[in-house]
Design goal:
Elements: E1 5-10, H1 14-25, E2 31-37, H2 41-50, E3 55-57, H3 60-67, E4 71-74, H4 81-90, E5 94-97, H5 105-118, E6 122-124, H6 132-142, E7 149-157, H7 171-174, H8 178-193, E8 199-207, E9 247-254, E10 259-265, E11 277-281, E12 285-287, E13 292-297, E14 300-304, H9 317-330, H10 340-359, E15 363-364
Parallel strand pairs: 1-2, 1-4, 2-3, 4-5, 5-6, 7-10
Antiparallel strand pairs: 7-11, 8-9, 8-15, 9-10, 11-12, 12-13, 13-14
Length: 366
């Protein structure tokens, strides 16, 4: 029997405690959770106790030095992904880093460069790829059933779904709002299905309309993407701290002559879940939720809905599939699904969106 990988988690907030910890725990034959670390030691201790993890730390570097884990999940706000990921890589661990990889292409590239220099794997948890619909869509596209994919669009729109359990809404810690929280998932999945065409120009807009106001609305943590049943000690929320965008859109030109539109919001006057995702191709098209293949059959236009096997029916199901995939990659049983060049293409596109929004016109991406 192959040895178990010893896994540690840095950052025990919502995503660390409700996605990474339970997903790793679901692989008892392959991994052993050995430590948690958080700048809030009491939170690291609480999560460790909740998952029977033997060690907990208030200092991530001390944890790396003493525990020397085989794999580290980095689940902190994204402004801290780079230093903690590099520290874990240099300590000899493979790393699963939450999305986005970092708030900027230069930092992202450095993280991958360090991973390659020390001979360790860097996984970025772009879990929107890890669903039955996403894998089926990728197969349709890869087999040429769409033909020339010349336009795509994706929208992840919440009516009132601002994360109110951590520091997502503070630029100091997370650099951006829904673009970095949910937009990055949608864009990554779509560009992956399309074969990773390079984004060469972006015209973007970011706005703040609702997040810095007290609307006194009845909302829930579930509305903003949290599994409230597993959440540990939410941080008190103060709308005065909100200084990121709550809506963004971007028109992206692709190197192959195609184009793509991204829209994403935490707060907008729109029906919850009203966003749409689709790809237009010369031989067929794809639409999501549910996944449908749009094409012609002889003289007639026809739509088909594939019967896609469903994944685990639980919160953060993509994380469960991603962690199992990472183990298989490390055992040499399959190739990585989320690759360096794809992650860097996406983060460069988001750099372009923010840069365009700041200057008020389209920007070229070098």
């Amino acid at each position: 029997m192959s040895k178990k990988f010893r896994v540690a988690i840095i950052g025990t907030g919502m995503i660390g405690s409700t996605a990474h910890a339970p997903a790793w725990s679901a692989l008892p034959d392959d991994v052993e959770l050995v430590a948690t670390a958080d700048i809030l030691p009491e939170r690291a201790e609480s999560v460790a106790a909740g998952f029977d993890i033997p060690n907990h730390y208030g200092d991530p570097q001390k944890m790396l030095d003493e525990i020397q884990p085989d794999i580290v999940s980095v689940c902190t706000p994204n402004c801290y992904h780079k230093p903690l990921t590099i520290a874990a890589l240099k300590a000899g661990a493979h790393v699963l880093c939450e999305k986005p990889i970092a708030p900027g292409y230069a930092d992202a590239k450095e993280m991958y460069d360090v991973a390659e220099s020390v001979g360790r794997e860097l996984f970025i948890t772009q879990t929107a790829r890890f669903s039955g619909d996403s894998f089926a869509a990728k197969e349709y596209a890869s087999k040429g059933m769409l033909g020339d994919m010349y336009y795509a669009e994706t929208a992840t729109l919440r009516r009132r779904g601002i994360p109110k359990w951590g520091v997502f809404h503070m630029k100091e810690h997370n650099a951006g709002g829904p673009v970095y929280d949910i937009g990055v998932h949608a864009l990554d999945m779509l560009i992956w299905v399309m074969g990773n065409p390079k984004v060469v120009a972006v015209s973007g807009q970011t706005v703040l309309k609702f997040g810095n106001k007290d609307e006194n609305l009845a909302t829930s943590l579930f509305d903003s993407g949290a599994d409230a049943g597993l959440l540990f000690e939410p941080r008190p929320y103060d709308y005065h701290e909100f200084d990121v965008e709550d809506f963004a859109s971007g028109y992206m030109r692709l190197e192959n002559g195609g184009s793509l539109v991204l829209r994403t919001s935490w707060a907008a006057n729109v029906q919850q879940g009203a966003g749409s995702t689709f790809i237009l191709g010369t031989e067929g098209g794809l639409m999501w939720d549910p996944l449908r293949y749009i094409s012609n059959q002889g003289r007639y236009m026809a739509d088909s809905t594939p019967h896609v096997p469903s994944g685990p029916g639980k919160a953060f199901a993509g994380h469960y599939q991603y962690m199992a995939h990472a183990v298989r990659v490390l055992r040499g049983e399959e190739e990585k699904i989320v690759k360096r060049e794809e992650v860097l293409n996406v983060i460069r596109a988001l750099d372009g969106l923010y840069a365009s929004a700041e200057v008020g016109h389209e920007v070229q991406i070098d």
